[in-house]
Amino acid sequence: MHAIGNSNRGVFDRATRLIHWLTAALMLSVFVLAFSIDLATSRSAHSAFLQLHRSVGLTVWGVTLFRLAWRNFAEYPAWPGDRSQAMRVAAVASEYALYVLLLAQPILGLLQTNAHGDHVNLFFIAQLPALIEKNSLLAHRLLTIHKAVGFSLMTLIVLHVSAALFHHLWRRDDTLTAMLPAAAGWRRDA
Hints:
The chain has 4 helices and 2 strands; from the N terminus they run αααββα. By secondary structure, it is an all-alpha fold. The chain has a single domain, classed as Fumarate Reductase Cytochrome B subunit, CATH 1.20.950. The protein has a two-stranded antiparallel sheet with strand order 1-2.
């Protein structure tokens, strides 16, 4: 089955689209900063990248909490009628897996930072208090889990983007355009 045709799915409200793309930009920043930490050529650059990574990660956590609260007020467009039950289950499961990881990852990072004996200096403005005592063994374990969750998160994001492109390029439905910033202008029938 190649092209299903236009599903005429409605668009997400502006706030939902804004939060979605803000989260995408923040996650891109988190990953760029994470990979930049080890590429730093000085101790001060290493520290700056690390603190920015932590700060942006905690911002993702706050934005995700807001997004989950906003879901209670937002009206989401209906699913395309031709979407199979398996596709719906996969979409919902991956969406909630993303939410779980977006909430868990910053907390894991914060706990790992504290267990390492360090503090988060939120955007170089305020130092957050430690939630747990220094514990080197726990810090090492938390870092291992933090990295594994990070790669899992990256994998889910790649699958999410791939699914959106599959819908747009293969199924030729409005799943992708429903979330684009100027959604109506991207529609095939617009």
